[in-house]
Design a protein that fits this description.
Layout: H1 2-12, E1 14-18, E2 25-29, H2 46-58, H3 62-77, H4 110-125, H5 129-142, H6 146-164
Antiparallel strand pairs: 1-2
Length: 167
């Protein structure tokens, strides 16, 4: 199932190649052979990344699942918002030197909020309480999963107070 989702992700992936003329670009769909290639402005569909992450979680491949969840969050900002070393598929965005920051992302969606909640719980389980709290705070601002995020935040605050005395 993971391979099928990855094939769908690759089939859905597109990138923009700047052309020599000003203000124009050609859009080309990538293929499975392009995964290791240097691409520009890669956008990965969070609706495909999220189920891949969940499948890795079911196989107890939690580190891989976490990297896919991070990729889901990166799609909020758009192409170029994640460092190429963080791409689990080996996709290289080619935007390391680009200061534009992408700007064509999905923004906050239900799927990105679910990924953020998963990452908050993952950080909590690993004892990374401050990181988990940051994810919970972001969720409270997103408007999705707010009640669950507030509950997680309360639990985190009580554990942090018990661990360090005061926040």
């Amino acid at each position: 199932a993971i391979k099928a989702y990855k094939r769908a992700l690759v089939a859905n992936m597109a990138y923009i190649e700047p052309s020599s003329s000003f203000g124009s670009a050609s859009v080309r769909s990538s293929s499975a052979g392009d995964l290791g290639a240097n691409t520009t402005n890669v956008f990965l569909d969070p609706e495909l990344l999220y189920p891949i992450a969940l499948l890795h979680e079911k196989q107890a491949e939690f580190e891989t699942a976490a990297s896919y969840m991070e990729l889901v969050l990166a799609q909020e900002e758009g192409p170029g918002s994640i460092h190429p070393d963080e791409l689990p598929l080996g996709v290289v965005t080619g935007n390391e030197d680009d200061d534009s920051g992408g700007g064509q992302g999905t923004g906050v969606t239900v799927t990105t909020s679910k990924a953020r909640m998963w990452l908050a719980r993952w950080a909590f389980k690993r004892g990374e309480l401050k990181r988990a709290m940051a994810f919970a705070d972001e969720l409270c601002e997103d408007g999705y999963e707010v009640e669950e995020a507030k509950a997680l935040g309360r639990d985190l605050r009580s554990r942090m107070e018990g661990r360090w005395g005061e926040l």
